[in-house]
Structure formats: C-alpha cells, structure tokens
Write a sequence for this structure.
C-alpha cells in the first residue's frame, strides 16, 4: 500500500522550489549530488554515534550482511 500525503511540509516545498530554479539537467544533477552528499554525512554521523556508543560493532555489521533485505511479495 502506498501512503498518500495531503500536504507538503516546509522542507519539501523548499526543495521543490530549489529544483524549479535548475534550468539545465546538469544543474539539477549537481543539486541532487549536493543533497546526496549531505544525507551521506548525516548517515555517517549517526553510524559513528552508534559505533561510539557500542550499539554498532563489527559483529552487528556482519549480522546485517547476512540479513535478507528484499521486501516480501504477496502471492496473487
């Protein structure tokens, strides 16, 4: 089931406005790259925090590597 949203939050509106000011595909790709780098830093900081707190360690990472991450599909 796909969740639907009745309204956009201020961040979503701002991002849409930013993409509206990208006259070329190259500029849009550059903006997407900047956003991707930002979120990669957010994830890295959280991973570092979990590592420093002992919540995440080598054993936990190895366990994740063995996980089955695919979404199960309902049988028709």
């Amino acid at each position: 089931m796909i969740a639907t949203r009745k309204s956009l939050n201020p961040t979503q509106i701002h991002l849409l406005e930013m993409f509206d000011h990208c006259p070329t595909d190259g500029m849009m790709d550059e903006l997407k790259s900047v956003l991707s780098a930002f979120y990669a830093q957010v994830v890295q900081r959280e991973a570092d925090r979990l590592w420093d707190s002992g919540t995440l360690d080598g054993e936990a990472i190895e366990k994740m590597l063995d996980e089955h991450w695919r979404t199960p599909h309902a049988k028709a």
Q: What stands out?
A: Residues 19 and 27 are 9 Å apart (CA to CA). The chain has a mean pLDDT of 88. The radius of gyration is 18 Å.
